[in-house]
Structure formats: structure tokens, C-alpha cells
What does this fold into?
Amino acid sequence: MRLGIIGKISQQEAEVHVKDFMLRHSKILGLNNPNDLRLLEQLKIKETERLAQMSQRRLKR
It folds into this structure.
């Protein structure tokens, strides 16, 4: 069962969305370790790059 925005977007888009949410709300979520936040940012960048690659592949079809 899928609910809300997650049901309307791809898995990669959802990954980027969740990581972005976590970064924006890190204090509320108790994420206060700078190393964790840096890693989360790096993971978000990787997912964003994968999403861009997937989009390019779709356009080439």
C-alpha cells in the first residue's frame, strides 16, 4: 500500500525526498552529529545523480 507523495513518485525520487526532509528537519529528528549530516548529504547527492541518469535514459528511448 502506498500513501501520499511516495505513491506518486519513483523510488529514487522518494529517496531524494526523504533525505532532503531529514536534512531540513535534522534538529527535530535529533540528527546532530556533523559526520552523520555530511554522510546524509553525500547520499542525497548520489541519489540525485542516479535520478538524473535515469531521466536521461528515459529521454533516449
Notes: The chain has a mean pLDDT of 87.
